[in-house]
Amino acid sequence: MHRRYLALVAVLALVGLSGCAGLFGSNQVSSDQLNQNASYDWDAQSDVSVTLNKSSYEAVYAVQNNESLTVYDRDGLGREQSVPISALKFRYENGTVVTSANSSMNATQSRSQTTINFPGSGNVTGQVAYTAARSGKAYATPTHLQGATYAVTLPPGGRVGVPLLSQVNPGGYETSVDEETDRMTVRWPDGVSAQQLRVRYYLQRDLYIFGGLFVVAIVLGSIGTLYYYRQVQSARRRRKEAGIDLEDEETDDDFGDDGPPPGMR
To answer: Count of alpha carbons within 13 Å of 138, Cβ hemisphere only?
Structure first.
């Protein structure tokens, strides 16, 4: 038992010395990860714009007089967890774009959050952008900039609007579709004061599949109902042919011929 205890202590010590973000503080996000290539829409009209792709998303945040930005997600239990960012870029107000390769910009990641440190030694104003992995037909994020205007652009063919297939929270949003890219954008032009933003969407082909399944269900239900009705009618005919219901029918027909009630005869 003593040896097992010493082995556990040794493992924890090695993990701590290696800078494991899950247990002991934060560690630096690798430069290879931060310097991956990505293109961003710097001209978005919202303070925060998010573009969803099939397996990733691109986020652009407008920052003003800040030296860092902390981002995080929430797991299924509501606990904060860090965002594994990549392709980090910063755009100054004059249009100059820098990366961590040609500036002092960097990022640190702990178990619960990711902190992006902007270039320079003081507060700066501009836009910061990064890429992160995603999956499924839903996107949710805590609103890291309270009261900011948000825009979420869905993948090609993605739509919201059918209650059973989509959901958008909070309310007060607007939608528009770019016909060239077939992308719908959900916007909150008056700002978001809620703690979290969530968009669950469907693809247009899903709507056709859902409609087809609904029609098939109606047809099968109608066929089943008709079959059951015919079976009942067939059973009734067989009972009548066998004379099973004859006595009851005669009794009902002769109800007035039973004579006077008892005591009156």
So the answer is: 10
Task: Label residue 11 by pLDDT band (50, 70, 90).
Answer: very low
Total-model pTM: 0.72
Q: Where does residue 37 rank: exposed (0-12), middle (13-18), buried (19+ CB within 10 A)?
A: exposed
Residue whose token pair is 């528009």? 176
Residue 13: what pLDDT? Answer: 46
What pLDDT, in 10s, does the model give residues 78-90? 899 999 999 999 9
> Are the CB atoms for 56 and 131 separated by under 8 Å?
yes
CA distance 125 to 90: 10
Residue type, 34: L
What residue spans of the chain are helical by DSSP H?
2-17, 31-34, 204-241, 246-253
175 vs 189: CA distance, rounded Å: 10
d(CA 173, CA 197): 11
Residues in the chain: 265
Least confident of 124-138, 150-164, 240-254: 240-254
Give the pLDDT band (50/70/90) at residue 2. Answer: low
Query: Strand, coil or helix: what is 182?
Result: coil
| Distance of alpha carbon 265 from alpha carbon 255, whole angstroms | 17
SS3 240: helix
Q: Mapping DSSP to helix (H, G, I), strand (E, B) and coil, where does residue 100 land?
A: coil
User: How far is residue 143's CA from residue 199's CA, in Å, rounded to a whole number?
Assistant: 13
